[in-house]
């Protein structure tokens, strides 16, 4: 069965409407794009539509020097939030964003400050996709004491998902797997909740999962011009799975918009 994220989107919509009523100007989001690939272009299309719908002024800027551009927009008082498109070209890493972005404009929650705050369970902005994953899990199943396997250890998805699920009150037992993990399917078969964020189309097949598990498919892959996840479609016969598109990505987009409104409120104080 596919997991429906309608309720979460409804709640986020309500939260955004409330924030909108408190902000005194149209929030401005800068989207920095460095050498876009097909998945980036597809994401930017959605970002344009979503920002327009919610009344966020989006400026897409082609960046040739990420550090310089981050420093410039960090200081620009008319800018509330800064977003950087992924994947980044090889000459950059997540560190370049983490050490340079102003934490108050870091609506993606990836700066040193925001990542550190998450470790201390005192969040300002947490990585949007990780928050989306946790929201979907919380809405659909009990987390406490469950065996959660996260496949992927990126700084923006896998690692923050693991930290957020370990948080006191959520209390999951978390295993994080990656490309060097041996016998991955033996580990994933034990998961009550499986989060897959690897960027490999249809990689997780029926023999990777336990019957009845909750599966969060974070992957966005373009195959023959179509968007597919990391989880193969036949897995829905055994488990509850988030759809791609229309699952984690939709929730992530709204969390980003909500964060832009939060940043705009902070910027006007
Ligand atoms: N829905 C959304 O809103 C959203 C947001 C962000 C990303 N995404 C998508 O999610 C996917 C992952 O993104 P990311 O930024 O986390 O990617 P990433 O930085 O490339 O990280 C991929 C992770 O997957 C691991 N991995 C790769 N192949 C594997 C395999 N065969 N078995 C086990 N682990 C494997 C890698 O292991 P190593 O560390 O050992 O290399 C790495 O930790 C991509 O498809 C991306 O487009 C979706």
Automatic annotation (TrEMBL):
Tetrahydrofolate dehydrogenase/cyclohydrolase NAD(P)-binding domain: which residues?
Answer: 127-265
Its annotated pathway reads:
One-carbon metabolism; tetrahydrofolate interconversion
GO biological process terms held by the UniProt record: L-histidine biosynthetic process; methionine biosynthetic process; purine nucleotide biosynthetic process; tetrahydrofolate interconversion
NADP among keywords: yes
Q: Where is the Tetrahydrofolate dehydrogenase/cyclohydrolase catalytic domain?
A: 6-108
User: EC number(s)?
Assistant: 1.5.1.5, 3.5.4.9
**Domain of life where this protein originates:** Bacteria
Which CDD domains is this protein grouped with?
NAD_bind_m-THF_DH_Cyclohyd
State the UniProt keywords alphabetically: Amino-acid biosynthesis, Histidine biosynthesis, Hydrolase, Methionine biosynthesis, Multifunctional enzyme, NADP, One-carbon metabolism, Oxidoreductase, Purine biosynthesis
Q: Which residues bind NADP(+)?
A: 152-154, 220
Q: Name one GO cellular component term.
A: cytosol
Subunit structure, briefly?
Homodimer.
Q: Which HAMAP family match?
A: THF_DHG_CYH (MF_01576)
What family is this? Belongs to the tetrahydrofolate dehydrogenase/cyclohydrolase family.
Query: Would you tell me the protein name for this molecule?
Result: Bifunctional protein FolD
């Amino acid at each position: 069965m596919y997991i429906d994220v309608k309720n979460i989107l409804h709640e986020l919509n309500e939260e955004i409407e409330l924030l909108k009523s408190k902000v005194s100007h149209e929030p401005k989001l800068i989207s920095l794009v460095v050498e876009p690939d097909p998945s980036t272009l597809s994401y930017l299309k959605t970002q344009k539509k979503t920002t327009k719908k919610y009344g966020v002024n989006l400026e897409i800027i082609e960046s040739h020097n990420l550090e310089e551009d981050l420093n410039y927009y960090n200081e620009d008082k008319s800018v509330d939030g800064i977003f950087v498109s992924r994947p980044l070209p090889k000459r950059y890493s997540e560190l370049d964003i983490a050490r340079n972005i102003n934490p108050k404009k870091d609506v993606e929650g990836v700066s040193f400050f925001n990542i550190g705050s998450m470790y201390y369970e005192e969040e300002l902005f947490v990585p949007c996709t990780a928050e989306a994953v946790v929201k979907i899990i919380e809405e659909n199943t009990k987390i406490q004491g469950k065996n959660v396997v996260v496949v992927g250890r990126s700084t923006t998805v896998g690692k923050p998902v693991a930290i957020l699920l370990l948080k006191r009150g959520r209390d999951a037992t978390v295993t994080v797997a990656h490309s060097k993990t041996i016998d991955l399917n033996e580990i994933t078969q034990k998961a009550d909740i499986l989060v897959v964020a690897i960027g490999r189309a249809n990689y997780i097949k029926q023999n990777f999962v336990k019957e009845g598990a909750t599966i969060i498919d974070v992957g966005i892959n373009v195959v023959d011009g179509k968007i597919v996840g990391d989880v193969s479609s036949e897995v829905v016969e055994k488990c509850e799975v988030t759809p791609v598109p229309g699952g984690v990505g939709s929730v992530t987009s709204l969390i980003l918009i909500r964060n832009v409104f939060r940043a705009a409120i902070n910027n006007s104080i």
